[in-house]
Amino acid sequence: MQKRKLGSTGPEVPAICLGGNVYGWTLPEAETFRQLDAAVDAGLNFIDTADVYSRWVPGNKGGESETIIGNWFAKSGKRKDVILATKVGMDLGDGKKGLKPAYIRQAVEDSLQRLQTDYIDIYQAHKDDPETPLEETLGAFDELVKQGKVRYIGASNYTGARLAEALETSRKHGFASYISLQPHYNLVERNPYESDLLPVVEKYQLGVIPYFSLAAGFLTGKYRSQQDSEKAARGAMVKKYLNDWGFAVVAALDEVAKAHASTPARVALAWLLAQPGITAPIASATNEKQLADLVEATKLKLDAESIQKLNAVSIQQSSAETVAHS
Q1: Of 23, 53, 152, 241, which is the active-site residue?
Q2: What angle do CA 295, 307, 250 make, to 5 degrees?
Q3: Measuring CA to CA, which residue among 89, 107, 86, 108 is closest to residue 97?
Q4: Backbone φ and ψ of 306, nearest 5°
Q5: Which helix (H) or strand (E) holds 19?
Q6: Which residues contact 135 (CB under 8 A, 6 or more apart)?
Q7: pLDDT tens digit sequence for 58-117
Q8: Does the active-site annotation cover 103?
Q9: What is the pLDDT of residue 236?
Q10: Is residue 200 a contact partner of residue 164, using CB atoms and an 8 Å limit?
């Protein structure tokens, strides 16, 4: 498995990060255990989740993904084999949200308990909290690093300006600093990463682990019409791409995949891996074929002509807003 350094000071990680947002949603616990065993055996041992996953499912309250991963750690004994990333800050109800120090201290204990571990490799601010001063948030994260409960910290869903401000705040106060960014970025969502965030990423040498790398499944080619989206769990998320421009991107993926004896999903991930600043795209899988696509994507090297073809067809940016949860 190809490894890459996560930023200038982070750990070595596989070139694909396994998304845990499907655990407790479209992938039940027993199937999740099988997937995690297979993924780690294949070298895909970088897993991303969040305390809020999967609160959006009727009957869930959040924490389901972390709980399932924790149960797998307990059963498999493979905690030491995994680089685990989780997140804090999204609304869990009952006032549980944001990045105030007292809440971060409580939230990390809750996550550690669910995950059945005494440390988190990468603890990420799930989104910016403009109501809390950055020095307070970063001071709380710094405390967790010093206590050994967190190895590294990262950010998600920040603007370029706020990300730079956070990094400078850490420098000024001698706090632990964000080593990574988790932005919404893929072939059909190229901004604001390319326009707003990439300059900050390059200046501060951050690792980047983009979410929705396959645009909620659209870039796998499984949505070819409005009808295809109507019964799918993520169907509502892909509707904004079901137009001439989106289908042209999929057609280009088909062409490149055929030329490389590959699949659209592998090509879409390989395109991301070839983009400036990108360390490890996050993608989830709900069956063995999808997991194989993630593993194989790390081996696919696109030629310059293929990358240019995909760049050209995808340059018309969707104006749709970023989906709230990553």
Answers
A1: 53
A2: 75
A3: 89
A4: -65, -45
A5: strand 17-19
A6: 169, 173, 175
A7: 999 999 999 999 999 999 999 999 999 999 999 999 999 999 999 999 999 999 999 999
A8: no
A9: 73
A10: yes
